[in-house]
Design goal:
metal-binding; zinc; alpha+beta; zinc ion binding; TF_DEAF-1; 10-stranded mixed sheet; single chain; 5 helices
Length: 236
């Protein structure tokens, strides 16, 4: 199956991983311990100790200063996202317009305006509810709500449409000493999702989770291919 399939949602779902640990934002991003303290500069990520903070520093410093000095929010409908450009050596923080829409059945959803970043093309997507490196789930056990997921979008045909390899993803994961778990071609955006197709600001704890996702995606025996909540493939 193609990483960039827009019709099949590739997802790390905690219920398939056994005894997972629920840890909210204010737990240590590296080991899930609580209490933890926010970074003194950006106040957007938490660590339980100097040791954990030092371990994450090569990655965190990529965006810590940028987060502190970010541009003002353009409107209440703009949400903070991560942008991984193709031809740069690090990601950027951007504001993405999330336009509220009404479905035919009367329900509501939000449309991400991301063509300026990904191009005028079909988009592939991936959701992360769980970090397999830290065994951390983002929503409480038994919760029926998607309170917190990390939602990635990319060019659906990025591997075959001539898109260049994404240098910023490789440079970022290598700060943790690991290449990406699978090749990524073309630009990529990551944003925080609440519910289905509703979005909120990503924080720098989410940045760490996203990096771990990129390291492990399509690597290891517990990667799952999921469509409409049904497991289609468990990788060997």
């Amino acid at each position: 199956m193609d990483v960039y399939s827009g019709k099949i949602i590739r997802s790390y779902l905690p219920e398939y991983y056994g005894n997972t640990v629920y840890a909210p934002d204010d737990c240590c991003v590296m080991c899930n311990k609580h209490p933890a303290s926010a970074c003194n500069q950006c106040r957007s990520i938490w660590y339980c100790s100097k040791s954990c903070q030092t371990k994450d520093w090569p990655t965190h410093k990529i965006l810590c200063k940028a987060f502190t000095n970010e541009e003002p929010r353009p409107s209440p409908n703009h949400k903070r996202a991560l942008f991984f450009p193709v031809d740069e050596t690090k990601p950027r923080l951007i504001w993405v317009l999330c336009e509220r829409k009404k479905a035919e059945d009367g329900g509501e959803w939000e449309k991400l305006h991301i063509k300026d970043y990904l191009g005028d093309t079909s988009f592939g997507r991936a959701r992360m509810h769980y970090n397999p490196i830290t065994n951390r789930r983002f929503t409480p056990p038994g919760s029926m709500r998607n309170d917190h997921a990390i939602f990635l979008q990319c060019r659906e045909a990025g591997l075959v449409d001539g898109s260049s390899p994404n240098q910023s993803i490789t440079a970022t994961t290598m700060k943790s000493g690991e290449p990406p778990g699978t090749p990524w071609c073309g630009p990529v955006i990551a944003i925080r999702e609440r519910g289905v197709d509703f979005y909120s600001d990503i924080n720098l704890g989410d940045f760490r989770q996203t990096v771990d996702f990129l390291i492990t995606y399509y690597r290891g025996e517990k990667n799952l291919l999921v469509s409409n909540g049904k497991v289609l493939l468990r990788a060997p």
